[in-house]
Write a structure and sequence with these properties.
elongated, 14% strand, five-stranded antiparallel β-sheet, 38% helix, 2 domains
Length: 274
């Protein structure tokens, strides 16, 4: 569901099998047997190459110089912006988009840390959670109160990708010691907790997603003295960024960048970021 699907490196795929040499572990594009045969027969006349030799020569030559049906050489398009004057590695649009995401991440983390410190969502803070549950013996809903301590293990994915849409957002969970969950465990969705305190802040920091919860309110009892490390604000989520730039569609990235720019415009000035 989350961008952290990048951690599942196999994605259900199987080991490739080369169609040229029938060996597992590589494809024709990286077949050493084909390359060796190509070097051996490329200068020979067609009739002396043999079937596999001819195939190797045609395959590798076409790969080196792709042509259209009319015989004209194809232009290689950038895999990111589809421009024809550069490659993905040197794409100026990708460089610009990375800078926007990194800047938005810095703003996001500043906004989150200020909100978390003010409302008891940092490690060792004491908060009161009220949730609404159905009491079957009496046949009606009732409120239950829990005094909870925020766990010391902060989520590693506290970053701007919480704003991603279309099931591409981070799902961030915060451990709550002392909370007796009716269903699941005592790790609560950060957006749910934020919304219980401030709907406007939940909209600023998180994409909308349906997360069923019976949390009615979240109030701070005692704030901890926890401070986020200075380097944390400036460190971009490189792995998530690279994954999104490679895997997301152009439309998904465009929507996400629009949210990043909105976040920067709305909150960046508070932290000297523009």
């Amino acid at each position: 569901m989350t961008i952290n699907a990048r951690k599942n490196k196999s994605n259900g795929s199987t080991t490739p099998t080369c169609k040229f040499c029938s060996t597992q572990g590589h494809t024709m594009a990286k077949c050493e047997d084909m390359i060796k045969l190509y070097e051996k027969v490329k200068s020979k006349p067609i009739e002396e190459r043999g079937f596999k030799g001819n195939f190797a020569v045609q395959y590798i030559d076409n790969k080196k110089s792709p042509t259209t049906k009319s015989g004209a050489t194809k232009k290689k398009l950038c895999g990111y912006c589809r421009g024809d004057d550069h490659t993905r590695k040197s794409c100026p649009q990708m460089v610009e988009d990375k800078e926007t995401i990194a800047k938005a991440n810095k703003v996001w983390r500043h906004v989150w840390s200020d909100f978390a410190k003010a409302n008891g969502l940092t490690p060792a803070s004491l908060i009161k959670l009220v949730d609404r549950r159905y009491n079957y013996p009496i046949g009606s809903y009732e409120n239950k109160e829990f005094l909870c301590t925020v766990g010391a293990e902060l989520p590693e994915n506290l970053n701007v990708f919480a704003l991603g849409e279309d099931n591409k957002q981070q799902s961030i969970f915060i451990p709550m010691l002392g909370y007796n969950a009716e269903y699941g465990n005592n790790k609560l969705n950060a957006r749910v907790l934020t919304k219980a305190i401030s709907e406007s802040m939940a909209s600023s920091l998180f994409a909308y997603s349906y997360n069923w919860s019976n949390i009615d309110s979240c109030t701070v009892v005692a704030k901890s003295s926890y401070e986020f490390p200075d380097e944390w604000y400036d460190t971009p989520p490189t792995e998530d960024m690279d994954y999104a730039l490679k895997k997301w569609t152009k439309e998904q990235m465009s929507d996400f960048l629009a949210k990043c720019n909105k976040l920067i415009n709305n909150h960046g000035g508070d932290y000297g970021i523009s």
